[in-house]
Design a protein that fits this description.
about 325 residues; Surface presentation of antigens (SPOA); 10 helices; 10 strands; disordered C terminus
Length: about 325
């Protein structure tokens, strides 16, 4: 229960009443110790824990990132979508909170039961349609007079976006979203009973210079079969590494063995100025930092790997590996 915070004037008045005897401290203490009753609204039953709400928020944060990338490519303009809130409330309360005329996309998510509602603010939907038709992305609200062409363009935009919703849920359940209905009046839409608990995910959406909300309404009946998976324990188990398949390890090992490496035997190195380099002529001697009494270094992809010594093999220059280089200072001894 939220605690009440007193203002400075209320604190001064309380102290004054205690000092003058108008209020008894013992009575206050007795009232504090009495059992308090909190009103519980059964019409607004909370059926999801905070842990499960956080998991849903995490899924839809991933979805918002995917949706941002998708719409940016489709509309070729600045798009920013992020999760604003995730709440659970009765379905009737959600329907009353959205505009009287708006863009409603109803889709099923087999193998889960029930349907999910995606509601887009008309300004956002029209900005998308305007960009698709070559405009600047201006937001206009004339949802009452949608033409058949406009309806088709808007519904197709959101239908293709459902592929991202499938990917966002991939770590929990494999769903196959399918757009079933397109509606503009929420009063004609009855997905579940008015008192049914739904999760509403609100996305702050910016398309160019137009901004608005996209709301995703998920009924409890849809999430009921996978509620156990919406826990932090399930996520932690998913993140634990699985046992390696020996066949996969062997195949990966064979593939890596065919990779080519850049191997160089370093005869020695020397530092000189540009002037000295330019003035080099036949017969000049460059003194290297490598002693003939010490082994040379072999580099693999510019990393020191082996101590070696030069020689010949079948009339070809070759090197013999003496030992592995372990980062010591053997050459400087």
């Amino acid at each position: 229960m939220a605690e009440e915070v007193l203002s400075q004037n209320e604190i001064d008045s309380l102290l004054s009443a205690l000092s003058t005897g108008e209020m008894d401290a013992e009575e206050l203490k007795k009232e504090e110790q009495e059992k308090k009753v909190r009103v519980y609204d059964f019409k607004r039953a909370l059926r999801f824990s905070k842990d499960q709400i956080r998991s849903l928020a995490r899924i839809h944060e991933n979805f918002s990132r995917l949706l941002t990338t998708y719409f940016s490519a489709q509309l070729r303009t600045y798009v920013d979508i992020e999760v604003a809130s995730v709440d659970q409330l009765p379905y009737e309360e959600f329907i009353r909170s959205i505009p009287t005329m708006t863009i409603l996309n109803i889709f099923s998510v087999p193998p889960l039961n029930g349907r999910i509602l995606l509601e887009a603010n008309p300004n956002v939907a029209y900005a998308m349609m305007d960009r698709v038709l070559g405009g600047k992305g201006s937001g206009v609200n004339k949802v009452e007079s949608l033409t058949e062409i406009e309806t088709t363009i808007i519904s197709h935009l959101f239908e293709r976006a459902l592929e991202n919703y499938q990917e966002a849920w991939g770590s929990i359940v494999n769903i196959d979203p399918l757009l079933e209905e397109f509606e503009v009046n929420p009063q004609f839409l009855q997905m579940v009973s008015p008192n049914e608990t739904v999760v509403v995910v609100s996305l702050n959406t910016t398309i160019g210079e137009t901004s608005g909300m996209i709301n995703i309404c998920i009924p409890h009946v849809v999430l009921e079969p996978i509620i156990p998976k919406l826990s932090v324990h399930y996520w932690m188990q998913k993140e634990q590494p699985k046992d390696k398949n020996p066949e996969d390890v062997d195949a990966l090992s064979k593939t890596i063995q065919k990779a080519e490496l850049d191997i160089r035997a370093i005869l020695g190195e020397a530092d000189m100025s540009i002037e000295e380099f330019v003035n080099l002529s036949e017969g000049d001697v460059i003194r290297l930092d490598q002693s003939i009494q010490k082994p040379m270094m072999m580099k693999v992809d510019d990393e020191d790997k082996f101590y070696i010594q030069p020689g010949k093999s079948k009339n070809k220059l070759a090197v013999q590996v003496l030992e592995e280089y372990k980062g010591g200072a053997k050459q400087d001894e």
